[in-house]
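Late entry, evening session. Most of the bench is empty. Finally got around to the prediction I had been postponing all week. Sequence below, unchanged from the version circulated by S.P.
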Amino acid sequence: KNYYGGNWASFSFSGLLSWIKEKQQEAEVSDECEDWRKLILENEEVICLNNSDKTIEHVEDFCFGNQDSAEDVEEAGALSKLPLFGASGAEGAAQESEKESAPVENTSPGKAASSDPASATEGNETEITSESGSSHNTASGESTSDVGKTEAAPSENSAQEPKKINYSQIVREGRRFNIDLVSKLLYSRGLLIDLLIKSNVSRYAEFKNATRVLAFWEGKVEQVPCSRADVFNSRQLTMVEKRLLMKFLTFCLEYEQHPDEYQGYESGTFAQFLGTRKLTPSLQHFILHSIAMVSEADCSTLDGLQATKKFLQCLGRYGNTPFLFPLYGQGEIPQCFCRMCAVFGGIYCLRHSVQCLVVDKESGRCKAVLDHFGQRISANYFVVEDSFLSESTCKNVCYRQISRAVLITDQSILKTDSEQQVSILRMPPVDRGQPAVCIIELCSSTMTCMKDTYLVHLTCPSTKTAREDLEPVVQKLFNLNTETEKETENEEVEKPRVLWAVYFNMRDSSGIDRSSYNRLPPNVYVCSGPDSALGNDCAVRQAETIFQEMFPTEEFCPPPPNPEDTIYDEEELASEDSGLNSAPETKPDPSPEEGNTEGGAAHEPE
């Protein structure tokens, strides 16, 4: 591939358009496996890998503005004769430099999030640390915070009418977009946050708090009170409802200690259990869809209580909601782990495909791989993502699908005094038999979209094509009229207008048992692509399981050693001393490339 992360990647707007075009025109590449026969020994056989990605289907994109006006418009800062994928090669370096120079709202990595949603305009980037809620301000953050506030401050007319954004502006500001193929949030006490802290990979990323949890109730979008303070300050709830809600949430935090409270309801659904707790219909809806975020039809009572407890335990660690979002998009996370890997000698090769696995006939173990240059690369273990396995290897595998949509809109689905809101809304099923839809709305301070626009991600398990699954929800919440169409109803004017949209189905290969794969060598380990869950626990558990199977005595993602604590053996020190003694007194400064290489070697563990 030309970009990092596979189906976890993020793209600029032009990069995403290139990705869409590639997926819509993707054809089967001719199998050149016969050319490798001369490289294969008599006691070896090959397992061919996929030469095309079949994990993405039914890609449809729509522009609700005038595309003709953008024909001659070029993306600002675009580099000629480079691939449009946002994180590859020299363009990736250009994107990194843009990240440094772009006005970021309160870029202080240690700035703690305010619990007041209205203060989100002032920035709420968060440094994740091992101590709950701990944070600190840095001098560099203070020096840039004023710039950020200027960028984020809402205009005087923001509450009246959104700015008119056209398609040519989106194209011109395309590098301001970082559009994720998969939409997720990080639970503040989830496995991924713990892993980022433990491994010190968190130093490569910055995070923003999700500021609002929303609900769709009685035909309109409302904000759900999460914390104790939110509940008692809420104007949506009566005093009786506030007491009932707090009593139930307190019970959920300690439900294991009170089994008599749910005895007899274990075999029933969580929705049925809520109906027995004297909760009003609105409270039952908020708990089911916005706090537990579980299915009304098939979630058991115990699973619902566990999901509610997880939500409540994550409150307050870094902000007023349980969730964090990485600045510049979810695609930053795999790149952060790549950066840490590179420090200790790991190599990530773009545009370098593997054609087949070389298997020893006697032992049945994989000995090597052959790349598309015909180069043979030997190793003891091989980890391969499911999408690279051929149809013959996966013929007994039954995959699920995820329906995805990404929208660029001109205003938030719930307008407030602050424009800089990161919101999550779980939309109940529109029709019977349809899944609930998870909606994440990102503002420009997340560095995923241009100013005066919002990036909206919709995700659900597939029942049909992505457009068939998600368009009914889009029609309920957004205005799909084009610029030239006259809006006839007041409610259409009030809804956020969709400027551009894409729908696609993505394969969900999580939960596949190893025995389902055909002729898989014992030292080849298969990892899945993204799953449909909101968090990242599945990916973290899978990575740790594979690592422990390969290296049962080693610690998974241990904290990296400090450079001062690195211990060199005597031979290494002697060779360095002899090199220093024979070196001339003056030495030219190393190039940036040489400096990076030397720095990586100095940190390499024994």
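Two things to note before I forget:
The chain has a mean pLDDT of 80.
The radius of gyration is 26 Å.
Will write this up properly tomorrow.
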